[in-house]
């Protein structure tokens, strides 16, 4: 068993922490009471939970976004954005909720969404 583990490369210490998904409505409501940063493509809500556990992410797309196809596409884009950009920037003990904006989240250029998220995280962490 030790020989098998010895062959595996060690995980880097600066690797992004694993994130969990916010599942309870109460946690979404608490995040909505926290800090907010609006951008051209979405709204970022964030709050410190007061513990040292892994960050949690939530995604919201209301019916204002459109039918189920557009809502699902918006949430897929927000999840991919969180995985690429937010996960490395997220702080332990924080909840983050990305809220889709009608007419923007689905059609906005990917590079602009990434820049929006970096800027929004910096504002929420101030």
From TrEMBL:
RNA-binding recorded as keyword: yes
Keywords: Endonuclease, Hydrolase, Nuclease, RNA-binding, tRNA processing
Keyword GTP-binding attributed: no
EC number: 3.1.26.5
GO molecular function terms noted in the UniProt entry: 3'-tRNA processing endoribonuclease activity; ribonuclease P activity; tRNA binding
PROSITE patterns named among the record's database cross-references: RIBONUCLEASE_P
EC top class, as a word: hydrolase
Superkingdom of origin: Bacteria
GO CC terms in record: ribonuclease P complex
Role according to the record: RNaseP catalyzes the removal of the 5'-leader sequence from pre-tRNA to produce the mature 5'-terminus. It can also cleave other RNA substrates such as 4.5S RNA. The protein component plays an auxiliary but essential role in vivo by binding to the 5'-leader sequence and broadening the substrate specificity of the ribozyme.
NCBIfam families noted in UniProt: rnpA
Name of the molecule in the record: Ribonuclease P protein component
